[in-house]
Amino acid sequence: MKSSELFPPKSFLNIRGELYSLNQAKVMGILNITPDSFFDGGKYTNEKAQLQRVEEMLSQGADFIDIGAQSSRPGAKEVGAEKEIELLTPIISSIRKYFPEAILSIDTWHASVAKATYNAGADMINDISGGTFDKDIFRCMQEIQLPYILMHTGGRPENMQDNPTYDNILKDIIYFMSRQLNTLNHIGVNDIIIDPGFGFGKTMAHNYELLSQLSHFSFLEAPILVGLSRKSMIYKPLNQKPEEALNGTTALNMIALEQGADILRVHDVKEAKECIQLHQMLH
User: Which of the following is catalytic: 73, 202, 231, 273?
Assistant: First the structure.
């Protein structure tokens, strides 16, 4: 049986008024403009470095660029909406100038940041809190009508790894997603991507249980984004550093594709594109 039969084509996204197909898996390249992200913090804190990184990822085949000005690594301190806007709006404008076709996702949980970056030219909002940190974000999405990535987290970055517990992690997250999707659909937000939130308020065992059961999320009939890239669930069992975790990332990305993932969010675009290309040869 083909994977397209197991996981039927889920949707198109409305990107600037045009339908964008997700019938083939896509790659979202990560641009962290923070000084303290777990893998590449501090590397892209000026415009020249940021634009070079975007150019590199686009040349390697990135379908989306996800820009974050707030580190969400475990223990990260919050910088606040004003600082995010101050950091994000100039680089969005620069990317729009030099790479007008780039599809830009903004990693934020603040409604005010979503609105400001929409005005600056963002195409998508990636909310790690799934609407739980800022009660105004859903209304903002209703207003700006951009595609919205609904992620699950087990708490705020500063405390989410303190003691993650669930009754049944798969059921708990699917219930959360169902409830949030229903709320969004009810107010007219329809372009929604779901992300189980690997590493966000989850133990190692939780992460691997979610990955092995990822296909169950197809029940929600929304595209699935998976962000595994160089995370501790890869490098810790292998007794590595994040810098050494590319091979493990590729291995788990292939499993995610087999389980129905539609978007791979990665630091290493070229390798993820190769992974998708080879996976398509199987089906």
Answer: 231
What is d(CA 110, CA 73) in angstroms, rounded to the nearest whole number? Answer: 17
Rounded to an integer, what distance in angstroms lies between the CA atom of residue 166 and that of residue 176?
A: 12
Mean pLDDT value across residues 155-183: 87
Q: Are 109 and 129 in contact (CB under 8 A)?
A: yes
Alpha-carbon separation of residue 230 from 19, 77, 218, 262 (angstroms): 31, 21, 25, 19
Q: How far apart are CA 226 and CA 209, in angstroms?
A: 14
Q: Which of 73, 202, 230, 265 is catalytic?
A: 265
Q: What is the DSSP string of 97-112?
A: HH-TT--EEEE---HH
d(CA 244, CA 203) in angstroms, rounded, equals 21
Integer Cα distance of 132 and 153 in angstroms: 9
Confidence of residue 4 (pLDDT cuts 50, 70, 90): very low
Q: Rounded mean pLDDT of 104-123?
A: 98
- Calculate the CA dihedral of residues 241, 246, 250, 251 and round it to 10 degrees: -40
pTM: 0.92
Cα 166 to Cα 152, 177, 219, 225: the distances in Å are 13, 15, 20, 22
The proportion of the chain whose per-residue pLDDT surpasses 90, expressed as a percent, equals 81
pLDDT bracket for residue 90 (50, 70, 90):
very high
pLDDT band at 34 (very low <50, low <70, confident <90, very high): confident
Indicate if 156 belongs to the active site. Answer: no
162 Cβ partners below 8 Å, 6+ apart? 155
Strand partners for 29: 65, 266
The answer on pLDDT for 8 being more than 90 is no
What are the structural domains of the chain? Answer: 24-282 (3.20.20.20)
Catalytic annotation present for 73:
no
